[in-house]
Amino acid sequence: MSKEIVFDIETQNTFADVNNDFTKLRVSVISLYRYETDAYESYTEDELGKVWPLFERADRLIGFNSEHFDLPILNNYYPGDLLKLPSLDIMKEVKANVGIRLKLDSIAEATLDNIKKSADGLTALRWWKEGRVDDVKKYCEQDVRVTKEIYEFGKTNSQLFYKNLVGEVLPFRVNFTMPKVGLGGSQKINLTLPF
To answer: Which residue has the higher pLDDT, 134 or 187?
Structure first.
């Protein structure tokens, strides 16, 4: 059974709030879909310690713009370097094949039937400040659901779709297959158990 995890984060502040300093961005919510349990889960900043063992045991972490946003922000809390864990950044794959960065919702709209984001990050930030934590969790879980559906479509079909500037829906190739692991198996780390 796959131990891949699809994930997304929301933050308590914006880049403008912290003068573009990644080290000052704070997580409000992280949502996960775990293939191992076929379930969605959400955690707040004070519960991040529960996430690290899941990440460390994962076959692969799957996100959208995760190498340039989610993982660096999560590294503000993690005792190691999450960027060293096996991962797939779908946006990185998209940019490598299309030549431009596309929004998650743009790919979903062109690729999937009736699955899209439910709001945007600034709305989620406002909800957080209003104390509407459950709404932030639902929004973040929906982003994870969209990312998961895009991942599964791309893995099955080796392609995704996007609309160009004149509205044409165009396909592009992707390769979401799991990289082969050497003879020694995958290297698992554990930085969160007490010694």
So the answer is: 134
Distance, CA of 12 to CA of 191 (rounded, Å): 26
Print the domain residue range for 126. 5-173
Let me know if residue 191 belongs to a domain: no
> Distance between CA 188 and CA 117 in Å, rounded?
33
- Please tell me the pTM assigned to this model: 0.88
Please report, to the nearest 10 degrees, the dihedral formed by the alpha carbons of residues 8, 12, 16, 21 taken in order.
-70
SS3 45: helix
Residue 189, pLDDT score: 55
What is the tally of structural domains in the chain?
A: 1
Q: In which band, very low, low, confident or very high, does the pLDDT at 180 lie, cut at 50, 70 and 90?
A: confident
- From CA 129, how far away is CA 133, in angstroms rounded? 9
Query: From CA 142, how far away is CA 80, in angstroms rounded?
Result: 28
- For residue 9, the domain's CATH number is 3.30.420.10
Q: Say what the pLDDT of residue 172 is.
A: 96
